[in-house]
Amino acid sequence: MTVTLRSVRPDDLPVFFVHQSDPEAAAMAGFTPRARDAFDAHWSRIIAGPAFVVRTVEVAGAVAGYVSAFPREGRTEIAYWLGRDYWHRGIGRTAVAMFLVQQRERPLFASVIDTNGASQTILEHCGFTVVREEAGDDGVRERTLRLD
Ligand SMILES: CC(C)(COP(=O)(O)OP(=O)(O)OC[C@H]1O[C@@H](n2cnc3c(N)ncnc32)[C@H](O)[C@@H]1OP(=O)(O)O)[C@@H](O)C(=O)NCCC(=O)NCCS
Questions:
Q1: Is the whole-model pTM more than 0.90?
Q2: Nearest Cα to Cα of residue 66 among 79, 75, 77
Q3: Residues 82, 71: Cα–Cα separation, whole Å
Q4: Hey, which of 18, 85, 119 would you mutate to test ligand 1's pocket, going by the most ligand atoms within 8 Å of its Cβ?
Q5: Is 33 in the pocket of ligand 1 (CB under 6 A)?
Q6: Which residue among 38, 85, 97, 128 has the highest number of C-beta atoms inside a 10 angstrom radius?
Q7: CB atoms within 10 A of CB 61
Q8: Are 11 and 62 in contact (CB under 8 A)?
Q9: Of 142, 115, 116, whose CA–CA distance to 130 is shortest?
Q10: d(CA 92, ligand 1 centre) in Å
């Protein structure tokens, strides 16, 4: 299985839309899926914004998801999302590790809800450590991890 990262193309976006609309994936990430209009507006900003770095994750020539870095509250965070068909095969770990070789900015941060064990394991495998844990307004506990 070969995992590659490449620049995002417009025809990746409908695939990302399907991935973010998956209720199981959204619950895992602690994320409310966007409706199509909001999704399109959000990704238009990402693709136009020089502060955003997004790489499409390809597996065997198919779009498996993305890894991104983006500004949030004065620092740079990473995030990633794979379609459910690609879970549990080490693709997330490989893609994030590859992205971190390409993106040399440090420190980098990531936010993970405390029930998202797979995401936290990926980050820890890549060298991130937990620097904060707190409950949000919704009561969901979120961990902040940092990579120096
Ligand atoms: C999170 C996500 C990227 C994981 O991708 P994946 O390809 O399935 O993950 P991998 O197979 O590379 O690795 C997962 C690791 O977590 C471990 N893991 C799985 N479930 C776990 C759990 N509940 N608790 C702790 N570790 C867990 C796996 O054993 C594996 O560890 P290993 O490399 O030591 O074997 C994917 O599920 C996803 O996109 N989910 C929806 C969006 C999301 O949650 N994004 C992250 C938001 S912070």
A1: yes
A2: 79
A3: 21
A4: 119
A5: no
A6: 128
A7: 7
A8: no
A9: 142
A10: 7
Single-letter residue type at 35: A
Beta-strand runs (E) in the chain:
3-7, 53-59, 62-72, 75-82, 108-113, 129-135, 141-147
Parse the chain into domains and list their residue ranges: 3-105
Answer whether 26's CB lies under 8 Å from 33's CB: yes
Residue in 93, 47, 97 with CA at minimum distance from that of residue 70? 47
Architecture of domain 3-105: 3-Layer(aba) Sandwich (3.40)
Neighbours of 118 (CB within 10 A): 14
Residue 76 near residue 70 (C-beta atoms within 8 A): yes
The residue whose two tokens read 């994320």 is 31
